[in-house]
């Protein structure tokens, strides 16, 4: 192996908006056969819109205020949808707010401990979900639930569209012989809908951060060379577990620190360039 070839490759990469932070990445990318992709914020724009509000008890505006109060300090893309929808409303103080990566957030608002997050979170809390609330996911929206620990207060539907270049990127990666796998903490129905739109056949949904690591380990145990691409706090461990971890530059600091390669431009075609460049560099080296 010639360090010069590596230097040339990483230099060329920088010109394409790809930051190679760790040496192992070049070789792992060149040998990769499986590309595991996070959904929210990676394949999608990360700017979801709030599409529906179903209040159960408090009014619609009150439900929004409570949810937005919990999300005020959140780095998650979903938080933006709620904060934007609540713009102009006076938000109550939220105390002791804690992110539950891959599940949601919790905190104390107006003297009550409130939880906001996925269906899985509600199941863990033992909060029953009325049928209308469950139907949000059947429409293809990511469902979010606000509860006080016993009772559902509201359900929200959010939709985060895929990045416009994502279908082309997936097609290009397949043409390079890579198998794409969608790995997400989102509900299976909206996850499958996005996967279908992008041409991804394999979907692992409703997966918590530890589950993402396990899923990658399982693929590696089958002898696969795995690249993982992610953006969130919930992706850091998976980025480290993969043979190469690619962090989306617009993602959270924790993900960026865990990445071997950073996509500095938000355009996902950087991934295709990273694979091509690594393959070329390895041919030069060996
Ligand atoms: P992905 O793996 O697609 O990036 P995440 O693991 O970040 O998704 O989130 C999985 C699910 O957990 C979301 O679809 C949402 O239901 C819930 N969730 C996570 N973080 C938050 C948050 N800050 N506010 C509300 N819901 C959240
Ligand atoms: Mg994400």
TrEMBL record:
Entry protein name: Copper-translocating P-type ATPase
Cellular compartment(s): Cell membrane; Endomembrane system
Family, similarity comment: Belongs to the cation transport ATPase (P-type) (TC 3.A.3) family. Type IB subfamily.
Segment forming the signal sequence: none
């Amino acid at each position: 192996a010639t360090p010069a070839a590596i230097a040339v490759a990483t230099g060329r990469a920088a010109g394409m908006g790809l930051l190679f932070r760790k040496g192992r990445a070049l070789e792992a990318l060149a040998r990769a056969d499986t590309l595991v992709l996070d959904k929210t914020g990676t394949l999608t724009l990360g700017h979801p819109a709030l599409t529906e509000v179903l209040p159960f008890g408090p009014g619609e505006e009150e439900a929004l205020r409570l949810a937005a109060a919990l999300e005020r300090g959140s780095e998650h893309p979903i938080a933006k949808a709620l904060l934007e929808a609540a713009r102009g409303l006076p938000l109550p103080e939220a105390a002791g707010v804690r992110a539950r990566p891959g599940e949601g957030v919790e905190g104390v608002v107006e003297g009550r401990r409130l939880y906001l997050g996925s269906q899985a979170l509600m199941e863990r809390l033992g909060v029953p979900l009325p049928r209308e609330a469950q139907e949000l996911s059947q429409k293809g929206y990511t469902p979010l639930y606000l509860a006080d620990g016993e009772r559902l207060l509201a359900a929200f539907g959010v939709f985060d569209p895929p990045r416009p270049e994502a279908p082309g990127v997936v097609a290009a990666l397949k043409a390079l012989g890579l198998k794409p796998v969608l790995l997400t903490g989102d509900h299976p129905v909206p996850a499958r809908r996005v996967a279908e739109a992008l041409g991804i056949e394999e979907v692992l949904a409703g997966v918590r951060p530890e589950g993402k690591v396990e899923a990658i380990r399982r693929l590696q145990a089958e002898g696969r060379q795995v690249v993982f691409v992610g953006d969130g706090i919930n992706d850091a461990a998976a980025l480290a577990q993969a043979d190469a971890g690619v962090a989306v530059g617009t993602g959270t600091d924790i993900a960026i620190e865990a990445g071997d390669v950073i996509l500095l431009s938000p355009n996902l075609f950087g991934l295709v360039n990273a694979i091509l460049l690594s393959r070329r560099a390895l041919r030069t080296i060996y």
